[in-house]
Amino acid sequence: MQVGADFLSVNHLKPYSSWKTFLSLIQESFKVYLDVAKPESIQRIGLRYINTIDVQHKNINLEDYFEFRPYIGSRLPRTIGPFMMSVQLPYENLRDVLNLRLISVAGISTEFATIILDLDYFTLQPKEVKLDDVFTWIETAHLHVEEAFEASITDQLRQLFEG
Hints:
Blueprint: E1 2-4, E2 7-9, H1 19-37, E3 46-56, H2 62-65, E4 84-91, E5 96-105, E6 112-123, H3 134-152, H4 155-162
Antiparallel strand pairs: 1-2, 3-6, 4-5, 5-6
């Protein structure tokens, strides 16, 4: 948990147990924050998952693992170097946005391709979510992030996770 002036961040690093456990940690942290800081409103709220994915073999075919990936056309070389791509997707009648990013990480390993799938879901305008509605918003955000994650990967990558 990180706390600052008008700021609360709740982080959960490896090993990630479950959404239920993480949500519990968020709820406990938010309750303490409300008791101590006594905020009047929420300027911005977000839910972010940064997934570091290692795929064995250095040169992978991205379409084998990711539905969300760079499209380079048929006339360009099939092997690509480091990349970073990002798209913003609107949700909840433009109240929220999901910033979806896919980034290759160069030079970490000679055996693995390391890819970051970053899903950052947040409100666009200040004070859109009331204090009493925080956990409804968080559940909605989690649903959209989970759906976007599943839509961004292939069954072949899911099989790697299960293994």
